[in-house]
Amino acid sequence: MEPLPKIEPMELAQQATPFDHPDWLFEPKHDGFRALAYIQGDDCKLVSRKDANFTRFSDLARVLPGDLNAKNAILDGELVVLDRTGKSQFLELIANDGAVVFAAFDLVWLNGKDLRDTPLIERKELLRFRVRHPADRLLFVDYAEGSGKALYSRICQRDMEGIVCKPAVSPYRTVDGKTTWVTVNNPTYSQSEGRAGLFDKR
């Protein structure tokens, strides 16, 4: 079995205000540790944005392959602890308090096929289809089409971190040397208080 390729995770550009656009997808931004999940058969390796292995989440790595209908895959997502309402609880993640879930928002490799040049909306729907139901520790991050302002308003009302905005047909690559993914953070997000100097969690 050939080893999986090393993937460079997409970066996020920031902007202050949400927007609507018929050709864009908008996702909730979960608050946790960004990670790539490399799944090969029954094995899974969780790797940080800075290419460090998340060995502390070995229990999650053991069960993730069973949550995905695939021989091999590479997922992009966020390691999170969720409360009963589906909100991320970052301090609980730091304290190892609660079950860690992989909130997957992209599928960039599937059964030997490189999907990085496949349009985002097709990658999202492939991912949705491949997540087993019920899944134990794998969450598909759903999206809204065209309506970023409405999603952002709901996210702020629920005191969540923000939204991520992505062109629906975008590849999993930079375009003209720049990322196409944009994040709009919630300025009143309560869990951001007191964390500025903690560490670079991204």
Summarize the model shown:
It is globular and about 45 Å long. Helices cover 18% and strands 33% of the residues. By secondary structure, the protein is an alpha+beta fold.
Describe this structure in words.
With 202 residues, this protein is of the alpha+beta class. Helix content is 18%, strand content 33%. It has helices spanning 58-67, 90-94, 120-130, 148-157, and strands at 13-14, 20-29, 33-40, 43-48, 72-81, 100-110, 113-114, 138-140, 144-147, 162-167, 182-185. Strands 3, 4, 5, 6, 7 and 8 form a 6-stranded mixed beta sheet that branches. Strand 6 and strand 7 form a beta hairpin. It is globular. The two termini are 31 Å apart.
Summarize this structure as a short list of keywords or feature phrases.
single chain; globular; 4 helices; alpha+beta; five-stranded mixed sheet; about 200 residues; six-stranded mixed sheet; about 35% strand
Biggest pleated-sheet summary: 6 strands, mixed
The strand count comes to 11
Mean pLDDT: 95
Give the ordered list of helices and strands: EEEEHEHEEHEEHEE
Instruction: Count every helix, treating DSSP H or I runs of 4 or more residues as helices.
Output: 4
What is the 3D form? globular
Distance between the termini: 31 Å
Radius of gyration: 16 Å
In percent terms, what proportion of residues is strand?
25-35%
Which parts are unreliable, with pLDDT below 50 for 5 consecutive residues or more?
none
**Helix proportion of residues, in percent?**
10-25%
- Structural class of the helix and strand makeup? alpha+beta
